[in-house]
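pinging the channel bc i need a second pair of eyes. not urgent but kinda urgent?? the chain im working w is below, pasted from the shared doc
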Amino acid sequence: MSVLKRQYDLVKNTRELLFGFCEELAPEDYVKELDDFGWGSIRNLHTHVAECYQSWLANFGLKENIKAAEPGAVSDVQDMRNIFGEVDNLVYRFLNTYEGQFDGTIKGSVPWQEADEELPVLWLFTHTVTHEFHHKGQIVSMARHLGYVPDDTDLMIPELK
């Protein structure tokens, strides 16, 4: 197994910790809109993270025209887990497709730009993972604002959980 697949397995493990914590939230708090945060709710932010993987790895990287996740289609954490199951398959498909080519680049259109973009394969993977961790911190902060004490959701070594 490649080092990037192993790294993504660690990302999934950490995401699972966050999902476990989110399942402890009152269902109405998972979808509650908070004015002081971009994306509004924990659910919306989770959906945004999934959409980033879908946009960059599927649509840009693999040239698949997939429909991005939408907050309105998610009613609870289990729905979000299902979306991320699809994201996991996407990430492994991307890594398998570009195995041994991580220094290569991919050219394509970006919806908010007029000119095409040429991006390194490794950048696409790194961007999506770091984007998820950035927003994981925001999700934890949102939960704190809602009165919850979050579990430790830092990158945990599976054997030490």
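so The domain at 3-151 is CATH 1.20.120.450 (Four Helix Bundle (Hemerythrin (Met), subunit A)). and Strands lie at 105-108, 117-120. — does that match what u expected or am i reading it wrong
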